[in-house]
Each structure stands twice: as structure tokens, then as C-alpha cells.
């Protein structure tokens, strides 16, 4: 989600300074979730998201301007759909048994747009997604060890609040 600049956060929250709807869209896509499930550490059964391992090593897509715009619009649609359920927490909204169909559809459209930004349209399994991302990662780090690409062509750093 997005927070306002006047919100104070704890050291348990990860912030992406100057993040846009594009960043939100990619980070909430099935593609990034597959990477997260493969790379994240765990604390009990919960994921422990790491800026160093997960975020900074994530091989971002290189979308066209139109693709980036579409991802931004669809990310906003996800946020707008969440507001249809003002009393629901994220845990309520994303419960696999009770997730609202409008939210499911909004995410499916976003996922297709993010996949297209990677130049892919279908993956048979999550393992296929992860294999694709690892191949892309290998290309990036194999490029003289210069690191992975990011939406702006720079290595963005995620900081603890």
C-alpha cells in the first residue's frame, strides 16, 4: 500500500522511497510473489521479506511506456477495489477462501500486464515463473556483475524506516 509522508513507521516496515503505482503493481504481482516465495526467509510459517536478498536482487521488467502506464492503471484499480471493503483488513481481503471476486479479477489483469512487461504471456506453473526470473537474474549479474535492472535503470535501495 501507500502511506503518507507524515506517517511514522517501525523498523518492521520496509519503505520504497518515491515509489509509484508502477512499483506497487510489480511488487504485488504474481511474478514478484513467486520470487518472494522462492527467495524469502521464513520466521515460523511467515515470510521474512529482505531488502538485500529479495528486493535488491529482483529482476525487474523493462516495460515500454505504454506497458508501464497500463501497470500503473491496473495497480490503481487494485487499490480502488480494496476500498470497496472499508472494514476489511488485508488478511480479510486476501484470504484465499473469501477473497472478493472483484479483487481477484483486478489482480489477474495486473498480473497479465506485468507478465507482458517481461515479454511473456503464459507460465504453466509457479516453478516456470521462478526459473524464468532466475534466468533473467543470471543475465543481469552476468553482465560484468553490475547488478539487476530496476524501473529507472538504477539499483534502487529499499530502506528500513
Task: Explain what the structure shows.
By secondary structure, the protein is mainly alpha-helical. Helices cover 48% and strands 6% of the residues. It contains seven helices and four strands, in the order βααββαααααβ. The protein has helices at residues 21-27, 30-39, 51-55, 65-82, 90-93, 101-117, 126-141, and strands spanning 14-15, 41-43, 46-48, 159-160. The protein has a two-stranded antiparallel sheet. The protein has a two-stranded antiparallel ribbon with strand order 2-3. A hairpin with a 2-residue loop joins strand 2 and strand 3 (46-48). Helix 1 (21-27) crosses helix 4, helix 2 (30-39) crosses helix 7 (126-141) and helix 4 packs antiparallel against helix 6 (101-117). The longest helix has 18 residues, at 65-82. The radius of gyration is 16 Å and the shape is globular. Mean pLDDT is 85; it is low at 148-161.
The portion of residues forming beta strands comes to: 5-15%
- Major sheet details: 2 strands, antiparallel
How does the helix and strand content classify structurally?
mainly alpha
Question: How are the strands of the largest sheet arranged?
Answer: 1-4
Cα-to-Cα separation, first versus last residue: 15 Å
- Pattern of helices and strands: EHHEEHHHHHE
Low-confidence stretches: 148-161
Helix content: 40-55%
Q: Report the total helices.
A: 7
Report the C-alpha radius of gyration, rounded: 16 Å
Count the beta strands.
Answer: 4
Shape: globular
Mean pLDDT reading: 85
Amino acid at each position: 500500500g501507500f502511506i503518507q509522508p507524515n506517517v511514522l513507521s517501525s523498523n518492521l516496515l520496509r519503505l520504497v522511497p518515491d515509489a509509484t503505482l508502477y512499483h506497487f503493481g510489480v511488487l504485488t504481482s504474481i511474478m514478484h510473489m513467486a520470487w518472494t516465495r522462492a527467495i524469502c526467509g521464513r520466521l515460523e510459517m511467515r515470510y521474512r521479506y529482505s531488502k538485500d536478498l529479495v528486493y535488491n536482487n529482483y529482476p525487474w521488467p523493462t516495460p515500454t511506456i505504454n506497458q508501464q502506464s497500463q501497470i500503473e492503471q491496473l495497480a490503481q484499480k487494485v487499490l480502488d477495489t480494496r476500498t470497496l471493503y472499508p472494514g476489511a483488513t488485508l488478511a480479510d481481503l486476501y484470504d484465499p477462501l473469501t477473497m472478493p471476486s472483484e479483487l481477484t479479477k483486478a489482480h489477474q489483469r495486473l498480473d497479465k500486464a506485468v507478465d507482458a512487461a517481461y515479454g511473456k504471456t503464459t507460465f504453466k506453473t509457479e516453478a516456470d515463473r521462478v526459473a524464468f526470473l532466475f534466468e533473467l537474474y543470471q543475465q543481469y549479474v552476468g553482465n560484468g556483475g553490475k547488478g539487476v535492472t530496476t524501473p529507472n535503470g538504477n539499483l534502487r535501495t529499499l530502506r528500513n524506516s
